[in-house]
Design a protein that fits this description.
Layout (H helix, E strand, L loop, with lengths): L1 H9 L2 H39 L5 E5 L19 H9 L3 E7 L1 E3 L2 E3 L13 E5 L8 E6 L7 E5 H7 L6 E5 L6 E11 L10 E5 L1 H7 L9 E6 L5 H12 L3 E5 H48 L1 H9 L4 H42 L12 H27 L18 H22 L7 H32 L6 H12 L1 H39 L4 E4 L13 H6 L4 E14 L2 E7 L2 H7 L4 E4 L8 E5 H6 L7 E5 L6 E9 L9 E2 L14 E6 L5 H11 L7 E4 H44 L1 H9 L4 H37 L12 H27 L3 H5 L3
Parallel strand pairs: 5-10, 7-9, 15-20, 17-19
Antiparallel strand pairs: 1-11, 1-12, 2-11, 3-5, 4-8, 6-9, 7-10, 8-9, 13-21, 13-22, 14-15, 14-18, 14-21, 16-19, 17-20, 18-19
């Protein structure tokens, strides 16, 4: 019997191919996400193992300073020369090399701007050539003078550097320093870099001065063991000799730690792509469900004949499920093969975007990816076919003698079930968004969103007929338009399920659009209402290393047009029993520039040992004016602080503000931002020109209008939204396929009907327009559902997160209109193939079709 059912199924290859395509797309993207991530991870794993080949043990200093939350990676603890001497004295040590290796050497290119980085670090190091052959000096020689450097080939190419030329380098110093390039180096295996990073190699004393501001000290000591001494034994001996305060690891442990650090980025990449692959699969479920539901309806007489010949309900049920499993398996295998190619293209795309070379070769396809892809693809397909399969098993043998066996089912039970599911999803989302339950994001956010979509999809049939009838009225004055609108409402469940696939993509995109618009409006409102400065001075905020000398603020305030100016020097410190991000600044100027208002104590220029804090933090920690605490900055030292003022919570400033005199222990000596208030708006361009000239020597510093800072923040949201829309385009593609599939199967189902209307005078063009009306109405109905759900979801998120003050509920009307227009376009595109199919039906054969 299974062979007979499969033979009947395979007679309609086009509709099977369209159904399988949804599974192919979903499994392809899922496989691609994991293959790309695993390939990158394996490449870096091999790379890190290679870089440690000539290293047995590595020693670094342990710091109790809190991890920076401001972007800077500048270390705060270093290996002392005395520790190096102890290491060299340990039996079994053949060689111990103290060196400096720190992210933060930014080279100024020939265009006068800092050579950008799209992710890989910009190292500043001390030159080390241990004779292992791993570092290869390609041109010139090693640096020996304080003003000499060697650069790796990647940097030489990016900044157009040659041996004998000069280069300006920004480090911890407020101003760049000029060095002579005396060498260009690469790495074993003819690599220009290890992973896309740039590297400026100084002499050891210079690196200690400019990269860590700790003369005589090292960021690490690399140790080579004498023959016969194992790295593990040497590690233990060195650790015993040094005592606490130092981390001693074998080369394998260092490589594993470095690989684990890279796994974080790879994991985020894989998880993000896997989420969108799941969305595509979830959307494809509706397409598969529709396909099998229509196949069962169209094969009613065929299935009834099987029952009449003695087949039981279980046999028919198992037969339909077997068809679904085989379809899912075949589609998943195709998706697996294509996904391996997508994974390779993904690594190539990342290399292109980062303008660098990743240490990857070939494609890594792990067994778990194969198993997961096939299991998910088959599971989703069988799950989607389960309800149609149950329906097929209930076909009575007498149905073989009927003209049709697909009566319309009552919608009441489905509507009630949909309402229950929707309420359950809304309940889960409410628990998380209101903060009633913390964490559990997968269950509450993911599960709530999934149930909400399912609930709306189950409720959609109840409203599909009245909605599509209303939408069809503008075209009902023509016969094709009137018939198309009626055909859309003939089977509300089929119409609703087809539209639900489009609803998911539109809802997610619309929700993201509402959130982005609200965030942009909130940022704009905050700056407009609270910031009185017209000019902003900013360094490289992504690394936290770029900045300017805070002492320059005194020169800025001397300008006759300037009324107030301040610098913000930000770092992460230990404050009391916890950690906090503090800003050293002139609080007197901040009170004016950020419109701060005191709720207790006073706001003024602080003296050493004084600080102020926002009202929310003060209430949370039970702080009052006069409270005392202790600050331990990253570079050490203890700074007692007394609270002298509490300011009303601001959207622009939060947390502790301290005196600039207490910033001596910060990681860097520079201020990351500055704000300037000009008395007369007409003088702003003049002051801007003067400030630009003042910072001309530092190309990493930009002087911009406050409005441009708002625009820059909003552009970031636009980029994120664009990425989301591109990824969510996958669901739109699947949804369009769903409309095509539904219409094609509907044409099969209505072959005699179309033949009859052609016989009574309807032309091929009119038939095509009728199919086009059906397609557009289904697409617009799905888009409207998506807009309603998306706006509701986005509004709920904005309301739940509104306590931040950076969100102001705003509906992107232009975006919503554009979505509707795209829905119409999608409907027209989806109608092309079915319309051609319907128009080309032979009239006589169609009338005789059974």
């Amino acid at each position: 019997m299974l062979r007979a059912m499969l033979r009947g199924l395979l007679t309609h290859k086009l509709r099977l191919a369209l159904s399988a395509l949804a599974v192919v797309l979903g499994t392809m993207f899922m496989t691609g996400a994991f293959v790309g991530g695993d390939t990158i991870a394996k490449g870096f794993e091999n790379l890190f193992a290679t870089t440690q080949e000539d290293l047995d043990v590595q020693v670094t200093a342990v710091s109790d300073a809190p991890r920076s939350q401001t972007g800077t990676s500048t270390p705060t603890a270093f290996v002392d020369p005395s520790a190096l001497a102890k290491i060299e004295a340990v039996p079994g040590v053949a060689k111990a090399t103290g060196l400096v290796l720190v992210d933060g050497a930014r080279v100024i290119g020939p265009d006068g701007k800092v050579v950008p980085s799209t992710g890989p670090p910009r190292y500043g190091s001390s030159w080390v050539d241990d004779g292992s052959g791993f570092v290869v000096l390609r041109e010139g020689r090693a640096p020996v003078q304080p003003d000499e450097v060697a650069v790796n080939a990647t940097l030489a190419d990016a900044a157009d550097l040659t041996v004998g030329g000069t280069v300006k380098v920004l480090t911890l110093r407020p101003e760049p320093e000029t060095f002579q390039v005396v060498g260009i180096f690469g790495y074993e295996g003819d690599r220009d870099s290890l992973g896309g990073e740039t590297n400026v190699a100084f002499t050891l004393p210079t690196a200690q001065r400019v990269m860590i501001d700790a003369p005589g000290k090292f960021t690490q000591v690399d140790v080579t063991a004498t023959p016969g001494v194992t790295p593990t034994a040497l590690r233990d001996d060195i650790a015993a000799a040094l005592g606490p305060g130092y981390a001693v690891k074998t080369a394998d442990e260092v490589a594993e730690e470095q690989a684990d650090a890279m796994q974080g980025f790879v994991g985020i990449l894989k998880n993000g792509l896997a989420v969108f692959a799941f969305i595509g699969l979830f959307t494809g479920t509706f397409l598969i469900f529709n396909t099998f539901a229509m196949l069962v309806a169209q094969r009613t007489r065929e299935l009834a004949l099987y029952r009449a010949f003695g087949a039981g309900r279980g046999q028919v049920l198992r037969g339909v499920l077997a068809e679904a499993a085989l379809l899912g398996l075949a589609a998943s295998l195709v998706g697996l093969v294509l996904g391996a190619g997508v994974g390779y293209l993904l690594t190539a795309a990342l290399e292109a975007l980062a303008n660098t070379s990743l240490p990857v070769t070939g494609v890594i396809l792990r067994p778990y990816v194969v198993i997961a892809t096939l299991a998910v693809g088959v599971g989703v397909t069988v799950l989607a076919a389960l309800v149609p399969a149950l329906r097929a098993g209930r076909v009575a043998p007498v149905a073989a003698m009927r003209e049709s066996a697909a009566p319309e089912r009552p919608l009441g039970p489905l509507t009630i079930a949909g309402a229950v599911v929707l309420l359950a999803g809304a309940g889960l989302l409410t628990l998380r968004l209101t903060g009633a339950v913390e964490g559990q994001n997968v269950l509450l956010l993911g599960g709530g969103t999934l149930l909400a979509f399912l609930g709306v999809a189950m409720l959609a049939p109840a409203i599909s007929r009245p909605v599509t009838t209303t939408l069809g009225r503008p075209v009902s004055f023509t016969t094709p338009g009137r018939l198309g609108a009626r055909n859309t409402g003939r089977n509300p469940i089929r119409t609703a399920v087809t539209a639900a696939a489009l609803m998911i993509g539109v809802a997610l995109a619309t929700g993201a659009g509402v959130f982005a618009s609200s965030a942009k409006a909130g940022i704009s409102d905050a700056f407009r209402a609270e910031l009185t400065a017209q000019l902003v001075i900013a360094g490289d905020l992504t690394t936290g290393q770029g900045g300017f000398d805070p002492a320059l603020i005194s020169r800025i305030t001397e300008l006759p047009e300037v009324t107030d100016a301040l610098a913000l020097q930000v770092d992460t410190v230990r404050l009391g029993q916890g950690t906090a991000v503090v800003a050293a600044t002139d609080v007197g100027a901040a009170q004016v520039i950020f419109s701060l208002r005191a709720t207790a104590g006073e706001l003024r220029t602080l003296r050493a040992g004084e600080y102020v804090i926002d009202a929310d933090t003060a209430a949370r920690d039970n702080l009052t004016v006069g409270s005392t605490t202790t600050m331990v900055p990253p570079r050490g030292g203890t700074f007692p602080l007394r609270l002298v003022g509490i300011y009303e919570t601001s959207r622009l400033v939060s947390g502790p503000l301290i005196s600039t005199a207490d910033a001596a222990g910060f990681r860097t000596r520079v201020a990351q931002q500055g704000y300037v208030r000009v008395a007369d708006d007409a003088a702003v361009p003049t002051v801007k020109d003067e400030l630009t000239a003042l910072f001309a020597a530092n190309p990493e510093i930009t002087v911009a209008d406050a409005s441009s800072v708002v625009d820059q923040a909003q552009q970031f949201l636009d980029v994120i939204l664009a990425i989301l829309n591109v990824l969510l385009g996958l669901t739109i593609v699947v949804a369009v396929l769903g409309v095509i599939n539904t219409l094609l199967l509907s044409i099969y189902e209505r072959t005699r009907e179309i033949g009859l209307i052609r016989a009574v005078g309807m032309s091929r063009g009119q038939v095509a327009r009728m199919i086009g009306v059906e397609s557009v109405l289904i697409s617009v109905f799905g888009a409207l559902l998506g807009l309603v759900v998306g706006v509701a979801l986005g509004t709920a998120i904005v309301v739940a997160l509104d306590s931040s003050g950076y969100l102001s509920l705003t509906l992107p009307w232009g975006y919503l209109v554009a979505v509707l227009v795209l829905a119409v376009v999608a409907g027209v595109v989806a109608a092309i193939l079915p319309a051609i199919r319907a128009a080309r039906l032979d009239v006589l054969r169609a009338i005789a079709y059974e």
